[in-house]
């Protein structure tokens, strides 16, 4: 049971970091569906920074910078130029996949994956009764409380929600909804960058083509599940993370690997259907 809990936390961490920022963009009225691509490209640049500077800190900062730049491109196209978020998001996801392969061949002269013994893993910390965990898992827990405080207790948190719910009133108060959306997407980009750095320099110490493996989509699903509510989004994150951990566990009992890998996505469908069904039921009562 304890091993399953540890696996759930490890699987949930990249989703958790991504969903924290993704919830804020959702609150402003923008659903960022390019997070799969942002996580993948951040994973590559985290390895790149780690390899060249032989420092996990440089790797994490490189991943954060890549996530920020990627999200600013999304913001430019979807917030400033008002392009369709689905078209742009899908295009950026495909671009990130192709770009990471191109960069890997150009920089490291390999294809498929890159690993080097000189790269430095993000250090673990030891907690009583829990054991060793990546430093980024502790950081994720601290960031949750910061996000929770800002979301529920500050004027900035109220303005984020107003940007999505009543941008005309926000504009009348002299506050630009576009500026708030750019800020939310910038924060989201940094968080996705952290998630990518976790994947490639803590979960693994390598870059593998396509290593985001749908985690960005699961984070988007968690944000949709929460519908802009930070706490419900995190509930969704741990549900999907537990499903990923359970899928891996089931393989050890002889279950088909393909069926086990489908489990998180089956749970996503069930959770979203249940949430929408409950919403329709409440609407009928009202």
TrEMBL record:
Coiled coil residues, start to end: none
Gene Ontology cellular-component terms listed: plasma membrane
Keyword Transmembrane: yes
Gene Ontology terms for molecular function: transmembrane transporter activity
Subcellular location: Cell membrane
Membrane topology designation: Multi-pass membrane protein
Protein name: Inner-membrane translocator
Organism: Aminobacterium colombiense (strain DSM 12261 / ALA-1)
